[in-house]
């Protein structure tokens, strides 16, 4: 037991004190310990290891200072490498260098209907296809292994925004409830959600029939305006321009598809003018928000 205490003292001494003080710390327990143990402690391999760490840290620091890749950001599927003149550049990552999936939920399904081990494998593969027609058409379709997704019928497509709107509203209310210290919402957003949260007529979270959801949307329409705008603002990030690309939509779409088989069709038809971007107006219309209630200021 005592040996362990000395052992820890040595370690702490090495980590925290200057060399001259270290010797003092090592020597201190010596008066209490038998001579044999003192010798053991003196020769303890941890001291050598600590010394090695010190050296290793210095080497890493030197490398970091000279590494131009450190602050060079590459998009998914690419890694930074330096060329002969030490200039950083992004090159396709070799998919075999991606860490293998540990669980099934890490698999992703591509629009080529192929299951990729992880999203890293997917993006690395997509990168190698850059410039080809196949690469241009390949997107991450959804999270999880590829599976049969039933076709979405017209009547089912109409049900989708009912559930989605209710879900968006509940996500916001939950964020508001948990937001005491986390600052998940800005002050402006909190004020807007507060009105929804405190409204006694609010439909509480839970399973509701489609009739009830439709009725609630009609009756409490105003409560849905902000949640629909808020979700758009969450997704419109790269860049913040009032349009959602396929990639910007992915964080919402990809986990949703395996659960909601109308997701793809819903978002396809949201892009009413088929220019591959979902504008805020298109998004709002998709969720049944009236044109006069679309307000860019609500996103901020
Ligand atoms: Ca955007
Ligand atoms: Ca569009």
TrEMBL record:
Residues 91-148 form the Kazal-like domain. It is found in: Secreted, Extracellular space, Extracellular matrix, Basement membrane. It comes from the Eukaryota. Keywords: Basement membrane, Calcium, Copper, Disulfide bond, Extracellular matrix, Glycoprotein, Metal-binding, Secreted, Signal. InterPro entries: EF-hand-dom_pair, EF_Hand_1_Ca_BS, Fol_N, Follistatin/Osteonectin_EGF, Kazal_dom, Kazal_dom_sf, Osteonectin_CS, SPARC/Testican_Ca-bd-dom. Coiled coil: none annotated. GO terms for molecular function: calcium ion binding; collagen binding; extracellular matrix binding. One of its GO terms (cellular component) is extracellular space. Appears to regulate cell growth through interactions with the extracellular matrix and cytokines. Binds calcium and copper, several types of collagen, albumin, thrombospondin, PDGF and cell membranes. There are two calcium binding sites; an acidic domain that binds 5 to 8 Ca(2+) with a low affinity and an EF-hand loop that binds a Ca(2+) ion with a high affinity. Belongs to the SPARC family. This is SPARC. It comes from Seriola dumerili. The lineage of its organism: Eukaryota, Metazoa, Chordata, Craniata, Vertebrata.
């Amino acid at each position: 037991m005592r040996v362990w205490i000395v052992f820890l003292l040595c370690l702490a001494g090495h980590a925290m004190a200057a060399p001259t003080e270290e010797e003092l710390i090592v020597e201190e327990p010596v008066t209490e310990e038998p001579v044999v143990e003192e010798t053991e402690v003196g020769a303890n391999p941890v001291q050598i290891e600590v010394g090695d760490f010190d050296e290793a840290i210095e080497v890493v620091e030197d490398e970091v200072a000279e590494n131009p890749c450190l602050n060079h950001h590459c998009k998914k599927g690419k890694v930074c490498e330096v060329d002969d003149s030490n200039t950083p550049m992004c090159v396709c990552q070799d998919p075999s260098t991606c860490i293998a999936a540990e669980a099934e939920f890490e698999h992703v399904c591509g629009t080529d209907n192929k299951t990729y081990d992880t999203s890293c494998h997917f993006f690395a593969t997509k990168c190698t296809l850059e410039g080809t027609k196949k690469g241009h058409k390949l997107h991450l379709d959804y999270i999880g292994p590829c599976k049969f997704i039933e076709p979405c019928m017209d009547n089912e497509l109409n049900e989708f925004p009912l559930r989605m709107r209710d879900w968006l509203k509940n996500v916001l209310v939950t964020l508001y409830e948990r937001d005491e210290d986390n600052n998940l919402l800005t002050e402006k957003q909190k004020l807007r959600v507060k009105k929804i949260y405190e409204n006694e007529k609010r439909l509480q979270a839970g399973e509701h029939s489609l009739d009830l959801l439709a009725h609630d949307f009609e009756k409490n329409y105003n409560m849905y305006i902000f949640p629909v705008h808020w979700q758009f603002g969450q997704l419109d990030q790269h860049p913040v321009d009032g349009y959602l690309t396929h990639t910007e939509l992915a964080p919402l779409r990809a986990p949703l598809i395996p659960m909601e088989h109308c997701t793809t069709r819903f978002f396809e038809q949201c892009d009413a003018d088929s220019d591959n971007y979902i504008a805020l107006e298109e998004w709002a219309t998709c969720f049944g928000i009236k044109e006069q209630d679309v307000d860019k200021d609500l996103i901020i």
